[in-house]
Task: inverse folding
């Protein structure tokens, strides 16, 4: 039985490059060094910065004067500035079809919608923390408000605590108090019902 490796060569992209949503974008800031390099090959005079831009530009592509980010297995992602990024995060998180999900799901939905900008996760997290509905309906934590103080006991029955509880409703034998002793190490409990508690000074 021979083992065949089948290779399919695609001569054209399987996904049309223009299948992204379009929004009004303002003046970009983080795309300023990349955009002139891709459109006309202009680099900065600083050699180190020029090398960084040259390497960054491999992940981007200009098409009809719009900057797109390349993704590994998906279509091109439209690059947006900070104002549009905040709008996109708010619309996906709490918009008409918003689900009020966490930042990782919001970023996945943004990329599925066809948008990209650096720092998507941090921007999504900041916007989600401002959401009033998420803060009101968040699940309550069951953790204690204060730090737990551990009780150190090296061996069983080294440290005991004794307390008197009551008065309770009267039980048979006219007992209405309870003397309780507990071991700190094993949590062993001993209890004795009492009818009277006398205080000595």
Result:
């Amino acid at each position: 039985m021979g083992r065949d490796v089948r290779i399919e060569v695609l001569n054209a992209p399987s996904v049309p490059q223009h299948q992204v949503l379009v929004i009004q974008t303002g003046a970009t800031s983080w795309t300023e060094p990349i955009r002139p390099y891709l459109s006309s090959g202009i680099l900065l005079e600083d050699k180190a910065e020029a090398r960084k831009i040259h390497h960054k530009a491999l992940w981007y592509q200009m098409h009809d004067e719009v900057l797109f980010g390349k993704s590994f297995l998906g279509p091109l992602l439209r690059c947006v500035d900070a104002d549009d990024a905040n709008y996109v995060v708010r619309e996906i998180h709490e918009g008409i079809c918003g689900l009020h999900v966490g930042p990782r799901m919001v970023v996945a939905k943004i990329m599925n919608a066809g948008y990209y900008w650096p720092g998507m996760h941090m921007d999504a997290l900041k916007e989600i923390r401002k959401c009033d509905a998420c803060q009101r309906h968040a699940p309550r934590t069951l953790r204690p408000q204060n730090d737990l103080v551990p009780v150190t006991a090296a061996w069983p029955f080294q440290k005991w605590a004794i307390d008197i509880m009551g008065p309770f409703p009267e039980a048979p034998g006219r007992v209405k108090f309870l003397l309780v002793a507990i071991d700190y190490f094993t949590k062993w409990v001993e209890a004795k019902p009492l009818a009277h508690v006398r205080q000595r000074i």
Remarks:
- The mean pLDDT is 81.
